[in-house]
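Q: Sequence in, structure out?
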Amino acid sequence: MAPAVFNTDVAEDLGQAGSIPVRLRHPARTRSRPYRSAMQRLPLVDPDDPDADPHARALLGRVQELRGRTLNVYRAVGNHPEVLEGLLQFGAAAYFRNSLTPAQNELAYLGASVANDCHY
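A: Exactly. Output:
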C-alpha cells in the first residue's frame, strides 16, 4: 500500500504530519487551491548546455565518458559543482580504491540488497 500524500500547508497548520485526520490528507483539488506536490524538484544540469557552470559540465562530461551515461542524481548535484566533485571522489574511493577483493565487493552489494529488500 502506497504511503498517504498530504498537502504540506495542512500539515503545518495542524502540527505534526502524523496527527492529520485521514479526511484532511487529500484535500479536494479546486481552481482556487490547485494540488501541489510535497516534493520539490531540483533542476538537472545539462552537460551540453553552454549556460551551465563550466566546472559542472566538465565533471558530468567525465562521468559520461567513464560510465557511458549520467545518472540524474549527478545532474541534480551538479547545481553545486564542488559538492559533485566531492561526491565523485568519495564514490571512487569507496567503490574502486578500497582493500576489498571483487568477490567481497559483490558480497557487500548483495548483502545490502537483501537487507534493504531490493530485488534488482
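The two ends are 20 Å apart (CA to CA).
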